[in-house]
Amino acid sequence: MQCMLNSVQKDLLKKHLGPFLFCFFTMMFILLMQFLMLHVDKLVGKGLPIMIVLELIVTNLAYMVVLAVPVAILVSTLMAFGKFSEWNELTAVRAAGINPFKLILPVLIAGTLLFAFTAYFSNLILPEANHKARSLFLDIRMQKPAFDLQESTFYQDLEGYTFLIKEIDAETDSLIDVRVFQAETDGRDRAVVSAERGWLDSPDQFTLSLFLENGSILRYLPGERRDDETVERSFFDRYRMSFDLSDLAFSRSNPDQRSRTDRTMSTEAMLAVVDSLRTERENEYRSFTENVSESDDIPIFSDVGRTLTLGETRELDTLRVYDSEFYSVNQLFNPTLQINSLNRAINAMDSYHADLDRFYTNNNWRTFKIAELLVEVHKKFSIPFACILFVLLGAPIGMLTRNGNIGVAALISSGILTLFFISIIQGEKLADRLLISPMTGMWAVNLVLLTAGVLLTLRVSTSFRLTNLWSRDQ
């Protein structure tokens, strides 16, 4: 019987392999197409080397792996156990006295191993890939467009020159009715070059030559004074202009010299930053409270926001003094002292309000930053943990549906995945806004699905039913 069980377990694992690989690569393809559609405008028209584009794609494949593995596990588990139940193999196993949980166990172990791999990948490999991809994106964003002339359109991306081409012959690449506006520099006068025809030639990627025929050059020669500018016009049969395209060449920066964000840091690095922020927050709170308690200039009023007034006047020993709502002011029998005392109190309170606002701003910024970092820490493990959850959900659901068709598996998976990822996204937003804790935001849906998975597994492997909990016979 033990030998039969081993063969059944192996058969189930083999049934997982094909659907898992198919779903994994399908998800990777879908996510890759989505990435290209979102960023194709940033890559096209800038003359980027093909290896730079490929490197950008490869570095962005990392986050796709973390998403695709749990999805592939869910679909393959639904298909394998659904087909196993559809072919009545589950009925035969039960008739042989074998607990169905023993069939789920090897798949659950495989899911646990994939969870460990995905968590390791998400914690150490994904941040580095995200950091390189982010640095590459910034370099590409700063890259100027390639030298690409369009008909009847001003081209101004080559510093010091503006090109205007009326017509471009697509068959011969000839330029018709060419205008080149040359800006004034230290070693070059302002000029306008016109020609009937022209063509481009580039011996290498950093040099461009423009050959012109039948044209003229209008040069603006400066005199001793601005008003003495001289215009000189010359004609040519053939003329050549050379341009330096090094400014248009792609330039890479060192990723290690760029700052890191929460999505480009490992768990250990983020927890270190969190500890630092908490220490800074505590030190600032201690410093603020000590300064307030040690200050003798800050009065404590019942309503610090109201306007301080002196009140009505009264005569006392030929001095005109004021009746104030503040007892301490009334003890001063000199109007000048009364006014000075109130002014000092107002100034101290204004200073206190400024310090208090600054303290609240810094404290809130650190609190929000801590929440963002902790959300990323929990997310690095909550999403990979779905590898275990989806085995506990997919196996019993597949047994109960008794259908291993990919359409049924895709339909059920779409519902579960929609619930899972919407909960993760919304949980992240709520945690970032401090409405819930980072742990609750990232693990609440996992707890719900884990509970459902355990109950469904008990449903197919034992006589336990949820209704037994409130049945009269129990």
TrEMBL record:
This is Lipopolysaccharide export system permease protein. Keywords: Cell membrane, Membrane, Transmembrane, Transmembrane helix. It is found in: Cell membrane. It holds the Pfam family LptF_LptG. The keyword Membrane applies. Its main location: membrane. GO terms for cellular component: ATP-binding cassette (ABC) transporter complex. GO terms for biological process: lipopolysaccharide transport. InterPro entries: LptG/LptF_permease. The lineage of its organism: Bacteria, Pseudomonadati, Balneolota, Balneolia, Balneolales. The keyword Transmembrane applies. It is a multi-pass membrane protein. The chain crosses the membrane at residues 20-40, 60-82, 103-126, 381-401, 408-427, 439-458.
